[in-house]
Structure formats: C-alpha cells, structure tokens
Task: structure prediction
Amino acid sequence: MPKRAAIIAAPDIFLDPSIAAPLYRQLYERLRAHILTGQLEIGARLPSTRALAGQLGVSRNTTALAYDMLLSEGYIESRVGDGARVARTQPEQAMRAPRHRLRTRAEALSTQPVALARRGQTLLDTPHPGTLYGAQTGRERHTFRGGEPDVASFPFETWTRLLTRHARHSLPSAALYQPAHGYLPLREAIAAHIGITRGVRCSPEQVIITSGSQGALDLVARTLLDPGDSAWVEDPGYLGARGALLAAGARLVPVPVDRDGLQVTAGRVMAPDARLAVITPSHQFPTGVTMSLSRRLALLSWAREARAWIVEDDYDSEYRYSGRPLEALQGIDRAGVTVYIGTFSKTLFPALRLGYLVAPPALVDGLIATRRFVDVHLPPLDQMALADFIAEGHYARRLRRTRLLYMQRRDALYQALTKTLGAQLEVDLPEAGMHLVAWLPETLRAGDVANRAAAVGISVMPIIGSEERPLPREGLLFGFAGAPPDELREGVRALAKALRTT
Result:
C-alpha cells in the first residue's frame, strides 16, 4: 500500500515503493511540484527531515536526500536554527530575470559600434566579388556570373557512387586525424595531371590540399607575410587575392596590367622590395590577357633579386580554345620562388571547395606548420572521391566535354554581343577561360550599367580599376560557362534594354 503523510498546510504526499523511481526522487518531485504550483507558499517552513520521515514512514536518509536536491537547485533555503523554508526566489524566476537583462544588454550593444580588430574592419570595408553585381534585388539570374561552371551536366551519379564507396569502405580507417598535406593519392593524381597539362614540376610532397584557391591564398599570405609587408597585386585584379593579403596585414601595391600582363617595370618602381606578387598569368582576371614570356622572365628576375615570392593563381587554365597555352610560370622557374595554385571549383562544381597549392621545397614545412594551426586538415571523404574521379578518367572526360561546351557558349555570347551591342561595346573574344570582357565607351560607367542590368534581372560584373589608377575605359565581365546559348542570348537582349535606359 502507498505510504502517506501530511505536511502542515499542504496536500498529502504519496510515495509508492512499487515503481522504479526511488523514494527520495519521488519526494523531491512531489515537493517541487507543490512549490511551483503555490501549494507550498514562499517562505513556508517545512518539517524537519526527521519529522517528515516519521510522517511518511520512510528513512530519514530518504527525506535528507530529497531536501538536499531541493536546496542545491534553489527551491528551498536553510538556516541554522530556522530549519528549511520555501525559497523566496525560485530558480525559474532567477532564470527569467537574467534573460531579460541579457536581451536589454544585447539591444544596447546593437546600437553601439563593434570594436573589430583593424584587419577585421579592413575586410568588412573591402568589397568582395558578390558586391560588384549592381544593386541586387534577389531576383537576378546568374546567366553572366563569372567563375560559375556548368553544373547541370556534371556526372553527379558517378560522384555519388565514389563518395558512397569510400564512406562504406575507406572512412572508418580514416576517421582519426589525417596528414595536414591532404590525402596522398589525391596529391599524387594532381602532381601527375598538372605535370602533363601545365608543365608544373613537382612531387606529391610539394602538393598541399586546400579549401579552394581562396584557402590556398590565405595559407600563403599567413605564412609569408608580416603586417606592413608590401605585396604586388594586379590592377585591375582578383578581389579574393586582395582580401587574403589584407587579412595578413599586407600593404597592397596595385601594379597596372596591359595587353602583355603585369607591368613588372612599374612594380619595380612602385615597390622594389615587395615581399610577394600575386598574379594570374595564364588568363588574367578580369581582363583575360595572357602574360607574355618576356614579362614572365622579368618577373622571375625581380623575385630572385628581391628575394620575394611569386604566387601564381592558375584558376581556369584548363580551358583553352585555340593554340597551345604557355606553360605555367612555375614550370620555367629555376630559382624555386613560385607558389602555384589551382582549384577544382571551376572544373567541377564550386561547392566542392577543394583546391591545392604546389610549394617550393623550402616552403613546405612552414606552410604545413601554419596549416596545423588554421584548420589542421580538410575532411577526407571528398578528397578520396576526387582522387578516384581523376584516376578512373572521369576528370579528363569532364574537361574534354566542358571545353567543347564552353567554346560553343563563348561563341554564342560573343556573336550576340557584337550583333546586338556592337555599336556600344568593344567585345574581346577570349582564347581561354570561362568569361569574356566587353569595354564600354568613355561616357559610360560600369557601375551604373551593372545597376541598370540588375534592375532588369541580369548580373554583370563591372571592371573599374582601382581608386589609385582608374581605367581609361571601364568594362563588363560576362561569364558564359554556366548558361546555355539561348539563355545567354536572352540575357544580352535584356542588357540591351538596360543600356537603352542609361
């Protein structure tokens, strides 16, 4: 039979020894419920543990344990000579008050300026590529977005099969920490591929897997730059590279670009003692020019003399539509001053976030040491799948198919622009890459055109140069890889409509 006892001015409490919960836990829950519902009023004195044990017919240890739980959680309070009473401030009330105060504090902080570090504030104030596409409304099509490959035709079934295979059979053995360099079979596959296709001279030990080319730029900047060091950047150039350098505290030196690429002579005048130079020699971003051999040799000569480093971002060199491309700068570097960067975001799909860098042997240990304190290593599953994707020939087939596909799309866009807007735009037909550039007349500002285009649902990136050296003519960047020809033509018609209102 259940045991029962009464507490002064309180309902009866029933404890049932036949259920799984111990008696002290049942007593704790009954008393807590009576306190929360007000059946035991604030300040009410409770019986002593001895008296309550006698009333309930249980051991004093049972009542002492229940009181201890209530006391530790703030439901009752105890003073010498006064016994136990219901606490005047209950835990639920105490929890509600700080939450209100925290909300008030958060509201106050939201109206005050946030004290970021200088580098953080610099990055906050620095535009990134997504901010350049005019006044976005959220309804824009990505028809002309630069750097976006065709994902509709990607063999996701094959990719899923490779991922599943490794998730079942390889991941259990790779569940612990992995080498900071990255998955060895992937590094071996990359070294073999770029050795054949780009003339890059390296061993797998020099390859480090990164989170896209941006991760590679960040790792190099962290390792090679001290705050205040000078770094050459192309003008106009890739904003992602500028962001990585600024995050490392570098002083950017915008070196002008012309038809032959980076003007090395100008860089020597502006900052002869710069610590490094970041360049896109095979297909300069955004202008699309290829750095001439004489300029490449001049840049290598400067780096040797200045004891500086060259960071070669070879972001979309896999796509060449006529002639044989110049080999990578790294391939003709005999002094070991070039860090070569590549990415799979352009050749496969952007969300993959896998890239790599090839470091001179003298830099490998330093880069790996930095890597261990940044992100240790990347998750292994995608690396395993990519290694098989390359080894089984899927990557080479993907490149062949997309190279033909992108050439058709490039031609369709070029023809549409010259036919519809040839009187207003000077369009360059690129021999490589995934975008083309159209130059505006001097009377038009690229930012204004981008805003007009956004208003009719079209995203185009303006090419405007730097504040230090505005371009004599501004331009627009048109990505063509991610959209079929009909969509590209429709986008040109929409742009023509926008230009008529400019």
